[in-house]
Amino acid sequence: MAASIQLNVRSIKAPFNLTPVHKQWPKPSRISCAAAAATPTKRYSITLLPGDGIGPEIIFVTKNVLKLAGSLEGIEFSFQEMPMGGAALDLTGVPLPEETLSAAKKADAILLGAIGGYKWDKNEKHLKPETGLLQLREGLKVFANLRPATVLPQLVDSSTLKKDVAEGVDLMVVRELTGGIYFGKPRGFGINEKGEDIGFNTEVYATHEIDRIARVAFEIARKRRGQLCSVDKANVLEASMLWRKRVAAIASEYPDVELSHMYVDNAAMQLVRYPKQFDTIVTNNIFGDILSDEASMITGSIGMLPSASLGESGPGLFEPIHGSAPDIAGQDKANPLATILSAAMLLKYGLGEENAAKRIENAVLDTLNKGFRTGDIHSAGNKLVGCKEMGEEVLKSVDSPILAAI
Ligand SMILES: NC(=O)c1ccc[n+]([C@@H]2O[C@H](COP(=O)([O-])OP(=O)(O)OC[C@H]3O[C@@H](n4cnc5c(N)ncnc54)[C@H](O)[C@@H]3O)[C@@H](O)[C@H]2O)c1
Ligand SMILES: CC(C)[C@H](C(=O)O)[C@@H](O)C(=O)O
Ligand SMILES: [Mg+2]
C-alpha cells in the first residue's frame, strides 16, 4: 500500500515571502560534482515544511541529499517551501495556513522537519504548532504511520540496551494516525460537580478505521517476517476491545501472518526486555506515539528514526519521529539522519523510486561506516560532527555503489 504517485509537475507559487531556510549556509559543492547526473526523465513536486527548532537545519541537509540521489536516478524535483507550526503562527497567525495544506495536497510528496517550541507552549489549543500537525495529518487523510526501528550494526554500541539485547533488532511500528484519543469527541475543558476544573479527551475508534490500519499492518508483516503483534489495552478500554476484535477478524484474510495480541503496558516492558521478539507492531495513535519513541532508543537515538504517513490516495507525508528539539536548535547539533532516512521512505513509499531510496539508505550506512557521528550517537573512537557536516558526508556517499539496503 503506497500513496498514489502523481507524475505531473506542478509549479505552485508560494503565497508568502519566505526567507529560504539557512540561506546563509554555503551550498555543498558536492551537489554539482559528486557524480554525473542522469538526464531527468521523471519530475516530482515536493512540499517542504521545515517548521521550528531544528526543523530548518535537518530539512536543509535532507533536501540536498534528496536532490542528488534523485538526479543520479534521472529524477528532478521541484521544491516548494511552506510555513507550518510555530513558524506559520508567527507569519500568518495560524499553525496550518490554508495555502500550506492546499500546496501539500497538490504535491507528489511532503517532507516535514518538526514543529513546536517553548514560545508557543502556552498558546490555546487551536493556536498550538502541534494542532497544525494534527490538522495536516487529518487534511491529508494519512491514517497509516510507519515507524521502522532498526539497530544498525554500526550503532549497536550507541543503544542504551546491552549489545546482545539490541543487536539485530528490526521492527516496524504501524501507528494509526488520524483517529483515537487525538481526534475523539467530546474533548475540552469543563467543571465537575465539585466545582473543580477538568480536562477530557475521548478514545474512539470505528470499525472501518481499525480494519484499514489492520490491513496495512498485515500487508507489511507479510512482506517482512510474517509476524504481527497488535498492541492494545483491551483488558480495560472499550475502544481497545473493539480494536482487538476487529484485528482478529481481519487476520482471517492473512492466514500466512501469525497474529498475537499484547497489552500496551506489557509491550512497553517487552520492548526493553527482549525487543527481537517483535517484527511488526500495529497499534492505536497514542500507544504508537509512545512506543515508537521508546523503540527509537534501542536503535541508539531518536535522531535515527524516520517515518512515512500514508493514506488511501494522495501524497504521503514523511517526517522524523522526533520533535523540534528546542534544547539544541540553532546550534548545528541535530542528527539529520532520521530526516534523511525519511526522504528515503518518501522515495520508496511515496514515489515508488526504490533505486534512489537505496542510494540514500546506502549513503547513510557508508557515512556511519566511515565513523561520522552527531553528538546523540557519538562514542569514543568516532568522529564527532555537526548537522551540516553529517549532511555533507552523506552527500559524498550518495553516489557510492549500492550495497545491501538497511
Ligand atoms: N513531529 C513533530 O514535529 C514533533 C514530534 C515530537 C515533538 N514535537 C514537539 O517538539 C517540541 C520538543 O518536544 P520534546 O522535547 O518532547 O521532544 P524532541 O523529540 O524534540 O526532543 C527530545 C530529546 O531528544 C533530542 N533530539 C530530538 N531530535 C534529535 C535529533 N535529530 N538529533 C539529536 N537530538 C535530538 C532533543 O535534543 C531532546 O533532548 C515540543 O514542542 C513538541 O510538541 C514535535
Ligand atoms: C507533536 C505531536 C502532535 C506528535 C504526535 O503526538 O503525534 C509527535 O509526538 C509525533 O510523534 O509525531
Ligand atoms: Mg511523538
UniProtKB/TrEMBL annotation:
<protein>
    <recommendedName>
        <fullName>3-isopropylmalate dehydrogenase</fullName>
        <ecNumber>1.1.1.85</ecNumber>
    </recommendedName>
</protein>
<keyword id="KW-0520">NAD</keyword>
<dbReference type="GO" id="GO:0051287">
    <property type="term" value="F:NAD binding"/>
</dbReference>
<comment type="function">
    <text>Catalyzes the oxidation of 3-carboxy-2-hydroxy-4-methylpentanoate (3-isopropylmalate) to 3-carboxy-4-methyl-2-oxopentanoate. The product decarboxylates to 4-methyl-2 oxopentanoate.</text>
</comment>
<dbReference type="GO" id="GO:0000287">
    <property type="term" value="F:magnesium ion binding"/>
</dbReference>
<dbReference type="Pfam" id="PF00180">
    <property type="entry name" value="Iso_dh"/>
</dbReference>
<feature type="domain" description="Isopropylmalate dehydrogenase-like">
    <location>
        <begin position="45"/>
        <end position="394"/>
    </location>
</feature>
<keyword id="KW-0460">Magnesium</keyword>
<keyword id="KW-0479">Metal-binding</keyword>
<dbReference type="GO" id="GO:0003862">
    <property type="term" value="F:3-isopropylmalate dehydrogenase activity"/>
</dbReference>
<dbReference type="InterPro" id="IPR004429">
    <property type="entry name" value="Isopropylmalate_DH"/>
</dbReference>
<keyword id="KW-0028">Amino-acid biosynthesis</keyword>
<keyword id="KW-0560">Oxidoreductase</keyword>
<keyword id="KW-0432">Leucine biosynthesis</keyword>
<dbReference type="GO" id="GO:0009098">
    <property type="term" value="P:L-leucine biosynthetic process"/>
</dbReference>
<comment type="similarity">
    <text>Belongs to the isocitrate and isopropylmalate dehydrogenases family.</text>
</comment>
<dbReference type="InterPro" id="IPR024084">
    <property type="entry name" value="IsoPropMal-DH-like_dom"/>
</dbReference>
<keyword id="KW-0100">Branched-chain amino acid biosynthesis</keyword>
<comment type="subunit">
    <text>Homodimer.</text>
</comment>
<dbReference type="InterPro" id="IPR019818">
    <property type="entry name" value="IsoCit/isopropylmalate_DH_CS"/>
</dbReference>
<comment type="pathway">
    <text>Amino-acid biosynthesis; L-leucine biosynthesis; L-leucine from 3-methyl-2-oxobutanoate: step 3/4.</text>
</comment>
<keyword id="KW-0464">Manganese</keyword>
